[in-house]
Amino acid sequence: MSIMQEFESIRKEIGETKYQAIENYLSERPELFLDDIYYKESEWNKFEEWYNKESSETYRYRITSTGGNSIKYGNCEICGKPATEIFHQVEERSYKNSFEEVIHFTQNKCTNYFGHKECLESKQR
Q1: Whole-model pTM over 0.85
Q2: Rounded distance, CA 37 to CA 15, Å?
Q3: Is residue 105 classed as helix, strand or coil in its secondary structure?
Q4: pLDDT (tens digit, 9 = 90+) per residue, 11-21?
């Protein structure tokens, strides 16, 4: 397998988004080459740290009163104790799709709890 075929194989394995991030990383570091990132663990780890910072997700929360208590909605999902007022917390995380530079929010892979307001706030990231 030639070096170019191997690079293409690695590119497919890590995905287009991460590959584009590597190109951005390298453009900021002209002393590095693509094979430095692929084959040197220390450089890969530095890239991963940079990548995680650059693509870090942010979270936002919406807490609303249900207008009901534990008799209607059950006990707090966090502490398990009854509550005179139950709140509902919806978590959303940010993401950027690969076609535009606009930040969007989704509830995919996020939490959704019912309970005391203080308990819900304690579960925020």
Answers
A1: no
A2: 15
A3: strand
A4: 888 887 788 88
